[in-house]
Amino acid sequence: MISSVNVSQNGIDSLDKIFGANDNLLFATPIEFRRVDSIPEPSFTLGILALGVWSTSKTILRKHKQKSTVK
Fold first, then answer.
1. Which pTM does this prediction carry?
2. Is 5 within 8 Å of 14 (Cβ atoms)?
3. Rg of the chain's alpha carbons, rounded to an integer?
4. In terms of Cα–Cα distance, which of 26, 34, 29, 27 is closest to 15?
5. CB-CB contact of 13 with 28 (8 Å)
6. H or E element: which one contains 25?
7. Count of Cβ atoms closer than 10 Å to residue 7 Cβ
8. Shortest CA distance to 3 belongs to which of 14, 12, 11, 51?
9. Edge-to-edge strand order for the sheet containing 25-34?
10. 17-31 per-position pLDDT tens digit
11. Which pLDDT value is given to residue 71?
12. What is the largest distance, in Å, between two alpha-carbon atoms of the chain?
């Protein structure tokens, strides 16, 4: 088996070659590793969700107060 590896800034490429008894190539397996974009922090997502819940509850309370003052 012969492996060739190419390392770049964005990933790693590898090619594994397996040869038979007569030096003929039986098969080659390419393997690629790529950088993954970062995943947002859960605290940011929870903060946005909390802000949405807070603003929705404020809006509902304001509408409820307007209805009670109209009566």
1. 0.42
2. yes
3. 30
4. 29
5. no
6. strand 25-34
7. 9
8. 14
9. 2-7, 11-19, 25-34
10. 999 988 899 989 998
11. 58
12. 96
